[in-house]
Design brief:
This protein is mainly α. It is built from three helices and two strands; from the N terminus they run H-E-E-H-H. Strands 1-2 form a two-stranded antiparallel sheet. It is elongated.
């Protein structure tokens, strides 16, 4: 992972089709700017777009909850989403997670 959780939890992306996503890699949209103003989408989906729940390590799943690096890292949310169907799941490619079979 080459970015910290402060980057990933502090940006949003608007795709060429107008979908608002929490990451340029994740294509799960939380509203579309062609249907609602961006401000309304952000207001309605702020927690999902900024991974607000993950800012508290108690809400992290699996190994991430007790990982010594969780103050600066929460793994790749896109990898978690595409491997597990859950943006809040542990990163399946984390080198530090003993539950991963790399």
């Amino acid at each position: 992972m080459d970015t910290s959780k402060f980057y990933c939890g502090g940006i949003i992306c608007v795709t060429i089709d107008g979908d608002v996503t929490p990451c340029s890699v994740i294509r799960k949209g939380f509203g579309n700017i062609h249907d609602l103003p961006l401000e309304n989408i952000i207001e309605q989906y702020r927690d999902e777009l900024l991974f607000a729940r993950l800012h508290d390590p108690a809400n992290m799943k699996g190994h991430c909850r007790s990982c010594e690096n969780n103050k600066v890292c929460w793994g790749c949310r896109a990898m978690a989403y595409y491997e597990n169907g859950d943006m809040l799941a542990p990163d399946p490619m984390c080198w530090n997670n003993p539950d991963n079979s790399l």
